[in-house]
Amino acid sequence: MSNLPKSNPSQTISSSINSQLTMSEEKLSSESQQDILKDLLVGGNLTTRDITQQNIKNQINLLLLNISDDDAINKAFSKIAPDGWFDWRDKPKDVNDVLEQLEEIPYSNPNNPALLKFVYLLTQDNNIPQTICQKLKQLLTNESFEASSKTTSVQSLHSYLLIQLRSEGSRELYVKAWFIPDDTIQDPWERFKPLTVNEQQPEIPLEREKLPVLLSNLLQQCFEEYLQGQSTQLTIEIFLPRDRLCDEVEKWVYQDSEGFDITIGTEYQVVVRSYDRLKQLRTQQGSYWRRNWETVQLTWKDVPCCEQVITISQACFDPNKLRKLLVEKIILKICCNLSNLERNGLLSAIHSAGTPIIIWSRCEVNSLKNPEHFDALLEKPLHELSACVRKQRLAADHEMHLGNHLVLLWDDPNRIPPNPALEFSAS
Residue 115 and residue 14: Cα distance in Å, rounded? Predict the structure, then answer.
């Protein structure tokens, strides 16, 4: 053990992690490695005192070298790597390469770098030998990481599944998806987790008959690969082209592991987003959109007042007058049927004014058996609107129930897909 470099006792664990890996520069003899490994796997616990005596990366490196399951290491690293990470670098070829790339991954919390996240994921993998797993867990006992882990595990998360449907040609849609396990994380490198829609390509044509399998796979990735049993309030946000915003996406069905057919709009909060609006984020319309959303945030915990809401109750309206009215509003209620031409005029006004929230009934509200519930959706604080819509969908027990016809557009400009291929019109 005497030939190992000693760490300065005043060094923090973070500086130890960021220091150069001495073992990669000077090969230790196999006899020295065996001595260290014996000390790790047989000797005393890896307390904070032990960590200051030996570089933490050396310990991790030796433990990883004795994990024969390369898939476990690759799987953990793929969860840490940001979206597009391998667009300009090769996948790690060995453990040393994994550690080097982990150092390059940016992170917003200095107490929770990529290396510690990587080690934590390995400790959750049942394929890792128990002896090694226990030693890895001991490396996570520094106070900063424990505090971060406790905060994450105790508080229920707000998670988002983003499903983007991009139109190409006349009717064809292409699907791509991301997951936000914890919406409080704002660093885009850590915030968005790309989901696999196909093993060969990140974006595929949407086929209605394959939709249940696709949804099941996406949700499985969200819960099993990222949440791993953590409690969460999941919202599914579906980005749709302008002419598809009234599609009944909340009625999409998938099959769970027990064979039950689950409708996503009753199981989760489901809202639609405007795919077309993403292209306007850096334009004048985008500025209006952001300004209106700031008003939403200011009134987040309040019941919306009548000055913030405008209602369309009949199909005959002037799009120009509507647009002027919408500029000062944050919520639009639509409770009547519209022709294609009327709907196009309406959506043009909405996009131009930057209206962020729309409650839309696909059916004439007055023809429903519970029309009073439509206005009642806005009788609670604004942040509860999505949950109230879900309750109506759950209560829908016949075709003429409001819950069977509700569309909720909830367009937050601060939560958009990290799509580098998206062409912003003002770029």
Answer: 10
